[in-house]
Design goal:
By secondary structure, the protein is an all-alpha fold. Helices cover about 85% and strands about 0% of the residues. Helix 4 runs antiparallel to helix 7. One of its GO terms (cellular component) is cytoplasm. Belongs to the PhoU family. It is found in: Cytoplasm. Keywords: Cytoplasm, Phosphate transport, Transport.
Length: about 220
């Protein structure tokens, strides 16, 4: 009885940890989207300085997973939950890293001595990526397979936006061949946003695995 009680509470603790980490990553992606709009140098600095927090939490979550596996040897749905957390933990940490990468690309653009017209409006793409991330986290929280599958549709839309950004940046490089660095950084913002969407999709796939036991790969 005591062992079962301890195991149950270990799973509750782990669930709270991964949800807290997810909320932190979502906050960082929202800040990255704000940086794209406002070009706020102070917010860029704040976001890059906080990168270590999720890195540390990722290690804590991983250690907790390994401890539960070693002490309780979970099976069936409990084992699937632990496996999901291990995979989602890595995805969340990478999402936070990508948010920082967006901030750093904006910083490089703002520090460039040469100003080139902005080739693409990333606000719509950023909002769609935030929606994907929120949906995947909500799906994980509520074990909602239907919501998880909706993320896949948005992923296709974000991929199309990334391609559109690529084509526009390519055209701008032809017009301004003397300043390729700034334009390449601009395209990389699209690439980082797309990768956040991909990671959100990966989380949605893990939710389906948790609930249905089915391995889904959309990419």
């Amino acid at each position: 009885m005591t062992t079962h009680f301890t195991f149950h509470h270990a799973l509750i603790k782990l669930n709270k940890m991964v949800l807290k980490m997810s909320a932190m990553a979502e906050d960082r992606v929202r800040k990255a989207a704000t940086i794209i709009k406002t070009r706020d140098l102070e917010l860029i600095q704040s976001l890059t300085n906080s990168d270590y927090e999720i890195d540390e939490m990722e290690m804590e979550v991983e250690e907790e997973c390994l401890k539960i596996l070693a002490l309780h040897q979970p099976v069936a749905s409990d084992l699937r939950f632990i496996i999901m957390v291990i995979k989602v933990n890595s995805e969340i940490e990478r999402i936070a890293d990508l948010a920082v990468n967006v901030a750093m690309r904006m910083q490089a653009i703002l520090k460039s001595p040469h100003r080139v017209p902005t080739p693409y409006d990333y606000s719509g793409m950023a909002e769609k990526v935030i929606t994907m991330l929120k949906m995947s986290i909500d799906a994980m929280t509520n074990r909602d397979v239907r919501l998880a599958r909706q993320v896949f549709v948005l992923d296709d839309e974000v991929d199309a936006m990334r391609l559109d950004a690529y084509l526009k940046v390519k055209d701008m490089i032809r017009k301004y061949p003397e300043h390729p660095g700034q334009l390449i950084n601009s395209y990389l913002i699209a690439r980082h946003l797309e990768r956040i969407g991909d990671r959100a999709t990966n989380i949605a796939e893990e939710v389906i695995y948790l609930v249905e036991g089915e391995i889904v790969r959309c990419q």
